[in-house]
Amino acid sequence: MSPDLTPSPDLFDAETRVLSAARATFDDPHAGLAEHREALGGLLAGYERLLRETRRLIGRSDREELEMNRLNQRLHELAGELEYRATHDSLTGVLNRAAVIEHARTLLGTSGMALVVLDIDHFKRINDSFGHPVGDQVIRGVVACLQPLVPPAARIGRVGGEEFTVLLPGRSIDVAETLAEQMRAAIAAHDFHLPDRSAVTASFGVGALAKGSSFDVAYRCADEALYAAKRGGRNRVMCADHVYG
Ligand SMILES: Nc1nc2c(ncn2[C@@H]2O[C@H](COP(=O)(O)OP(=O)(O)OP(=O)(O)O)[C@@H](O)[C@H]2O)c(=O)[nH]1
Question: What residue ranges carry the coiled-coil annotation (predicted)?
């Protein structure tokens, strides 16, 4: 509970009494030097006490203000952390599924969007052979391969266990396809330090949607291309056969 900063009620009562007594002395034509000295002494003592009390209150309110600023700052930090946790995947730090959908809807409402969907190949085998923590390391490694390749305006998201998407503003399927091919090659060339020294690969689907399209249609078209890449032998990029919308 914050301390009560209201001055105690008798703070000014005492000064008022001293002031009234002094005024009465100064108004009294018969008052002598001793009475005037006494009134002046009372005024000085009251003045000094007021100064001390004022300094104490100012010091206290300065400390209160500092504490309030510190709490405010912490509140801002916590709100930021909360917002980050609500929108980011805790394993990889990229956007989570809900944030991907929201960002995609924003892009589809403004500029149209190209998207790349990728899924790590035979990921179950990695988990089953080497354990879940190694699988997690592979997931983080895949994101590390994607990050340096993705342009600043694009966002990476994790939409499922070992499935990711990259959202690109604008609807150039060629730009998205080139990026997907670079990402595919980077993952295939990366050393994930698996115990059996095997490589990790991923399959890619690419789609593009005009402004005003729905996210579900956007995702479906890229996802169909991804499964065509899986069926076609994995470790490859397939494009949706036309730009939707
Ligand atoms: N380590 C780890 N594994 C996960 C996570 N989320 C999902 N998985 C696993 O990911 C695996 C996905 O396997 P499948 O969907 O069968 O596909 P796959 O083995 O990658 O095969 P293809 O996609 O056909 O190439 C399952 O074994 C899940 O348990 C996670 O956060 N960490």
Answer: none
Contacts of residue 224, defined as CB under 8 A and 6 or more positions apart, other chains included, come to 205, 240
Cα torsion angle, 71, 75, 76, 78, sign: positive
ipTM: 0.94
Compute, in angstroms, the gap from residue 148 CA to the centroid of ligand 1: 24
Q: Is 177 a catalytic residue?
A: no
Catalytic residue, candidates 67, 162, 163, 177: 162
Which CATH number goes with the domain that contains 117? 3.30.70.270
Q: Please give the distance, rounded to the nearest whole angstrom, from the Cα atom of residue 71 to the centre of ligand 1.
A: 43
Could you report the per-residue pLDDT of 7-18, keeping only the tens digit for each?
A: 555 667 888 888
User: Which residue's alpha carbon is nearest to atom 29 within ligand 1?
Assistant: 124
Q: How many CA atoms within 13 Å lie on the side-chain side of 86?
A: 7
Domain encompassing residue 173: 97-239
- Indicate the residue type of 143: V
Of 56, 87, 118, the residue at which a domain comes to its end is 87
The whole-number average pLDDT for the span 211-226 is: 90
Measured at the alpha carbon of residue 92, what is the angle toward residues 124 and 136, in degrees to the nearest 5?
A: 30
Q: Is 162 in the pocket of ligand 1 (CB under 6 A)?
A: yes
Considering the domain architecture, whether residues 109 and 217 belong to the same structural domain is answered as yes
Q: 93 or 243, which is more confident?
A: 93
Q: What is the 65 CA–ligand 1 centroid distance (Å)?
A: 53
Q: What pLDDT digit, counting tens, does each position of 44-86 carry?
A: 998 898 889 889 999 999 999 999 999 999 999 999 999 999 9
Domain count along the chain: 2
